[in-house]
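#lab-general

N.A. 3:47 PM
ok so I finally got the sequence cleaned up, no stray characters, all 115 residues accounted for. can someone with queue access submit it? mine expired

B.Y. 3:52 PM
send it over

N.A. 3:53 PM
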Amino acid sequence: QVQLVESGGGLVQPGGSLRLSCAASGFDSSPYTMYWYRQAPEKGREWVAHITRRGFANYADSVKGRFTISRDNAKNTVYLQMDSLKPEDAALYYCNVVYRATDYWGQGTQVTVSS
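B.Y. 4:20 PM
back already:
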């Protein structure tokens, strides 16, 4: 019943912006830290950012200053605002939560950065 559904990916030029969404359902995500990960072809899954129940955010060094994670508890949704995108940001982006000792992942949304 617990589901995470990412959306908002697409093709952008270097320097462009995208806003990813992670819609949670089947549970109230507000008490839980929510995570964004990404995986590029032939690379491991990389932690990008997370946001705590109190709204405190942390970022990987590679995206710090360019990405912003936020949440709207009324909508049960977490966002990742990505600015100043670089080709190396291209990846499949996943939302994640640990809920009742279980890892839940969305299906991913594809971000492509090229000119």
